[in-house]
Design goal:
By secondary structure, the chain is of the alpha/beta class. The chain contains 10 helices and 17 strands. The structure holds S-adenosylmethionine.
């Protein structure tokens, strides 16, 4: 049978195989094959571009013929239409508009042996703390789990704090820019996926991680311990006020509060040491991806008597029809 697959050098194959498994992208119904120096890893359906971006290392996306893996149950065997679902730790999340949710949930439980709970979202991500409500429809009735990403572990209660695995590649992109000896201020740290990953890179990096949601900060503290990092300061409070304790200290300021980050630009400027980089996230319409947001950053800089230089402006992922999650990076002098 012909399938989309990842073609990767054998020596680089195992980490990618594991990543595909964790991201629920590896098709277990087909047998992985190898030819000469290459490994061919079969994929479930047609992968989304943003999922491919999350895979680390060099690979090619191609089509290839595979033999069937006998005896392996597939979702397609149990469901006519397999809806999109996400796996965080051992919890599978399906959307609230999925047709026959119980049937889908039971099929996921049968096929994905790592999944112990299936939750259906009861609404969108909402409110100041960006949380979401869920209903357990199969397996254990719980919303907490431990998710693994790039060698880090995160304890999360999905109803009490925000988390998405969809930013994993984006987080690793920021990680690559941070150097030993630098200070990072993560103004909206949540349970710590940016902060902890960066702190683990080098004990000589100082990370100041803030969040207003007491539950998120409780999990952040737990995750600091879980990952044995000693260089993250967890601060519970409103970023607009907490920044006063850290004037001119940061070499990187991470502003991952799309929709509202503009309300915190004056505060971000206060954190910036000479030459600091602000990583500013926003949700913007496709006909004005960067200009209006950049103007707001320029206004805040000028108010603070600072100058900015645009370093990068990129689309991180699609968010809703005609709406994109973007990241703008500026150097502050
Ligand atoms: N950076 C984290 C991540 O990637 O998972 C969390 C991002 S989430 C989109 C935004 C976070 O900002 C939430 O955890 C929310 O509680 C926090 N937040 C909202 N308003 C805040 C404020 N005024 N000060 C500090 N944190 C705030």
């Amino acid at each position: 049978m012909r399938k989309n697959c990842i073609k990767v050098l054998k020596k680089n194959g195992e980490p990618i195989r594991r990543e595909l498994l964790e991201m629920n992208m590896l098709d277990n119904s087909a047998r992985i094959c190898s030819e000469r120096d290459f490994l061919y890893l079969p994929l479930i359906g047609k992968p989304q571009e943003e999922d491919l971006k999350r895979i680390t290392g060099d690979f090619e996306l191609i089509e290839h013929d595979f033999e069937e893996q006998k005896g392996q149950l597939k979702l397609e065997d149990l469901l006519e239409d397999v809806p999109h679902f996400e796996v965080i730790g051992d919890i599978a999340l399906i959307e609230d508009d999925v047709f026959e949710p119980e049937k889908v949930a039971n099929a996921i439980m049968k096929v994905k042996i790592n999944v112990k709970t299936v939750l259906a979202a009861l609404g969108p991500v909402e409110g100041e703390f960006r949380t979401r409500r869920f209903k357990a429809i199969a397996g254990e009735d719980r919303t907490s789990t431990i998710h693994k990403e790039y060698g880090c572990k995160y304890y999360i209660d999905l109803e009490r704090a925000y988390f998405t695995p969809r930013l994993a590649t984006e987080r690793s992109r920021i990680l690559a820019q941070v150097k030993a000896g630098q200070t990072v201020a993560d103004m909206f740290a949540g349970v710590g996926p940016y902060s902890i990953m960066i702190a683990r890179k080098n004990p000589d990096i100082r990370v100041i991680a803030m969040d207003k949601n007491p539950d998120a900060v409780e999990f952040l503290r737990r995750n600091i311990e879980l990952n044995s990092v000693t260089n993250v300061e967890a601060i519970e409070g409103d970023a607009n006020q907490e920044v006063e304790k850290f004037p001119d200290v940061a070499d990187h300021v991470i502003m991952n509060l799309p929709h509202n980050a503009n309300e915190f630009l004056d505060a971000a400027m206060k954190l910036c040491a000479q030459g600091a980089i602000i990583h500013y996230y926003d949700i913007t319409p496709e006909d004005d991806l960067f200009d209006s947001s950049l103007k707001l950053i320029e206004e805040a800089a000028s108010k603070a008597g600072r100058e900015i230089e645009l370093i990068d402006a990129r689309v991180v992922r699609s968010y809703a029809p005609h709406q994109l999650n973007v990241c703008i990076e500026v150097k502050v002098r």
